[in-house]
């Protein structure tokens, strides 16, 4: 017997809201977290705006010990710990005792690059001949698995504790990895999610590629425009999202609140063939990923009520919509409602999938479809294949049962997960 897998805890540290209540309200109201950053202007960035969580009001003593806070510079690690510990608390789970870890609890928490600022400072110290000034915590703040190691130790997890990395699909992939681990009976509970550092050393490469919007530095909240004809590139973002996955049996045993059920999904690659490349998706692979996710979830394409797309506000948005129509064999007014949260906080890179999965689950919880912002001028290629009514501009109540969430990343990698409103049957 394979275990059913449910979601019992959520945590988020996003540019437009930290914590479920603030984040959920921001999504429902279309509140933006994209701001102008003087630092980027001083460094001669063409795009001087970004989405960065405002953690100034967060008491980090609630998340780290004084020793852990000493010399802590890795922003993604901070975001990840905030979201991860919040999700664990939201699930009503305890931290393991001092003598033995909990063998049934694990962590899969992904990232792209971690602790870049810390690494930069360490390099300067070494190059100047002051190796001891590089800091004794440099390694744990800059190794990719630093985030999962921090969370695993803080919570006392004795099952698998690891980090994955697959560009923009990292968070959705981490969720599916945790899902498979519980489904197969290897663990009862898995904390899954992803995080991304913030700052010029993360965003500079994208600015150099000229794929970020350059004409909105004076109007940052209008810059991220998924599915819009006037979209000129994605706005860089950062943050973290976290979800507690649990076997249904375990959740029922402890009378846990259940947000949703994970029905299944798919992860694949286009192999950078058939039009796919390091930066562009292979459309056939995207369609295959979506189709297999639906098949693995044991639902039909017609069961999908809502899609939360990847949709980054680039020239690839119309291609993504076309791929959805082909995979689902649904178009026009028969297409599901679709939204992108990136209009409100930009593209959070490795953290995108997990933050957006949290938002997707909140749609199921509140029985709402969150509105899209900055897309009054729907791209004409999108309008050709789906009816504009399927792209809601305002949040509205909707009795959704099944929502699909997908993420597509650099390297031609894809991930798609299917969520369902929990029912006993």
UniProtKB/TrEMBL annotation:
<dbReference type="InterPro" id="IPR014030">
    <property type="entry name" value="Ketoacyl_synth_N"/>
</dbReference>
<dbReference type="InterPro" id="IPR016039">
    <property type="entry name" value="Thiolase-like"/>
</dbReference>
<comment type="similarity">
    <text>Belongs to the thiolase-like superfamily. Beta-ketoacyl-ACP synthases family.</text>
</comment>
<dbReference type="InterPro" id="IPR000794">
    <property type="entry name" value="Beta-ketoacyl_synthase"/>
</dbReference>
<comment type="subunit">
    <text>Homodimer.</text>
</comment>
<feature type="domain" description="Ketosynthase family 3 (KS3)">
    <location>
        <begin position="2"/>
        <end position="421"/>
    </location>
</feature>
<dbReference type="InterPro" id="IPR020841">
    <property type="entry name" value="PKS_Beta-ketoAc_synthase_dom"/>
</dbReference>
<protein>
    <recommendedName>
        <fullName>3-oxoacyl-[acyl-carrier-protein] synthase 1</fullName>
        <ecNumber>2.3.1.41</ecNumber>
    </recommendedName>
</protein>
<dbReference type="GO" id="GO:0004315">
    <property type="term" value="F:3-oxoacyl-[acyl-carrier-protein] synthase activity"/>
</dbReference>
<keyword id="KW-0808">Transferase</keyword>
<dbReference type="GO" id="GO:0006633">
    <property type="term" value="P:fatty acid biosynthetic process"/>
</dbReference>
<keyword id="KW-0012">Acyltransferase</keyword>
<keyword id="KW-0963">Cytoplasm</keyword>
<dbReference type="GO" id="GO:0005829">
    <property type="term" value="C:cytosol"/>
</dbReference>
<dbReference type="Pfam" id="PF00109">
    <property type="entry name" value="ketoacyl-synt"/>
</dbReference>
<dbReference type="InterPro" id="IPR014031">
    <property type="entry name" value="Ketoacyl_synth_C"/>
</dbReference>
<dbReference type="Pfam" id="PF02801">
    <property type="entry name" value="Ketoacyl-synt_C"/>
</dbReference>
